[in-house]
């Protein structure tokens, strides 16, 4: 996967994806990690893991804010896309 990076900036010559999971949330990779960590916390009955999952979701949301500024600069259609898909990670919640 050429576009996978730890840096919150689009790769050169990347493309804006708006289909499949991106039709529902703008950052489905974060969604998967947050939902998996919350699910694991609930399955194990661990309040500490649940608290860490919530903290990770908050951190991810802030990271997304930074990342989206790069995306707006790199892709002319990103502003419109973010209006059409209002959720960052979890539909109706975040």
UniProtKB/TrEMBL annotation:
Organism listed in the record: Gracilariopsis chorda
Per the record, membrane topology reads:
Multi-pass membrane protein
Q: What's an example Gene Ontology biological process for this entry? A: phosphatidylcholine biosynthetic process
Give the UniProt entry's GO cellular component terms: endomembrane system
State the UniProt keywords alphabetically.
Answer: Lipid biosynthesis, Lipid metabolism, Membrane, Phospholipid biosynthesis, Phospholipid metabolism, Transmembrane, Transmembrane helix
Q: Which Pfam families does this entry report, sorted A to Z? A: PEMT
Question: Know the name of this protein?
Answer: Cobalt-zinc-cadmium resistance protein CzcN
Asked if Transmembrane helix is a keyword of the record, the answer is: yes
Q: Where in the cell is it found?
A: Endomembrane system
């Amino acid at each position: 996967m050429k576009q996978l990076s730890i840096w919150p900036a689009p790769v050169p010559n990347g493309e804006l994806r708006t289909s499949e999971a991106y039709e529902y949330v703008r950052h489905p990779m974060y969604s998967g990690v947050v939902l998996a960590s919350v699910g694991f916390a609930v399955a194990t009955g661990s309040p500490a893991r649940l608290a860490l999952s919530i903290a990770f979701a908050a951190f991810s949301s802030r990271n997304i804010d930074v990342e989206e500024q790069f995306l707006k600069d790199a892709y002319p259609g990103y502003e419109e896309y973010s209006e059409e898909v209002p959720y960052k990670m979890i539909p109706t919640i975040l």
